[in-house]
């Protein structure tokens, strides 16, 4: 009797033929999915484009990509930030097909093919309640160096100035350094932020703050100051009266081809250049780039 009970117990634990077949089917489906997944990914990657770099260009490029994908739903344009320097490296290493830079290329970056897709003014911004409306370039430099630390000599208010800047490597900071600071260094007491949006947010909440952002991103949360008596406007930029102007560049390793060329041509088309204008940037209508 004891042997019979053991035999029945073993039989009860043994999987039925039906269960064995079901397990085999599930295992087959699992391994088939694992094997096919990379192939699916590889197939989709041929219809995708990575655009990476300047966080100044990123919000605009997001909109351009959205319009592009509405016309070409079979394609995917993945727009990423990281800063101008990161975008340049991404193109050089092949991590992105198109890099975005909101500053002129340095000497060791000149091997890249560049296309200017828009131009942008750099705006010096303060809180809307700040009574100040104008600064000279030298005053701006003195503030960001840390020589002028109080608003008293500028607007009569005995308040310490909160300096807000972009991080090292950003195109916005690079342009500001070149156009305003020259060889002088920004004060180490400055609050450093990783995007134009966060700089704007801090200045909008601090009546004593001053910062710099893309002119195209200025809204009613902040006030853009005139420089040397010239307000930041399209007319002043085109007439070259307003000095703080920088390029918005798309970069590729070689002359663009395929999907990269298609997207760049689309951004340079009258449709998107009109959108560029509505977004507060200065449009360009140039079909070819250059390797300087």
What is the C-level CATH assignment of the largest domain? Alpha Beta
**Residue windows where pLDDT falls under 50 for at least 5 positions:** 24-45, 286-292
Assigned CATH superfamily of the largest domain: Periplasmic binding protein-like II
CATH architecture of the largest domain: 3-Layer(aba) Sandwich
How many separate helices?
Answer: 11
Pattern of helices and strands? HHEHEHEEEHHEHEHEEEHEHHE
Strand content: 15-25%
Query: Which fold name is given in CATH as the topology of the largest domain?
Result: D-Maltodextrin-Binding Protein, domain 2
Overall structural class, as computed from helix and strand content, comes to alpha/beta
End-to-end CA span: 95 Å
Number of strands: 12
Kindly report the average pLDDT value. 85
Rg over CA atoms = 28 Å
Q: How would a crystallographer describe the biggest sheet?
A: 10 strands, mixed
Shape: elongated
**Total domain units:** 2
| Helix share bin | 40-55%
Keywords for this structure?
D-Maltodextrin-Binding Protein, domain 2, two-stranded parallel sheet, disordered C terminus, 292 residues, 2 domains, elongated, 10-stranded mixed beta sheet, alpha/beta
Task: Write a structural description.
The protein has 292 residues and is of the alpha/beta class. It folds into two domains: 48-119 and 247-283, D-Maltodextrin-Binding Protein, domain 2, CATH 3.40.190.10; 121-238, D-Maltodextrin-Binding Protein, domain 2 (3-Layer(aba) Sandwich). It has eleven helices and twelve strands. The protein has helices spanning 2-13, 17-45, 58-71, 84-93, 137-145, 152-155, 171-181, 196-205, 234-238, 258-267, 270-278; strands at residues 48-53, 76-82, 98-101, 113-126, 134-135, 162-166, 191-193, 209-214, 223-224, 226-227, 245-252, 282-283. The strands form two sheets. Strands 1, 2, 3, 4, 6, 7, 8, 9, 11 and 12 form a ten-stranded mixed beta sheet that branches. Strands 5-10 form a two-stranded parallel sheet.
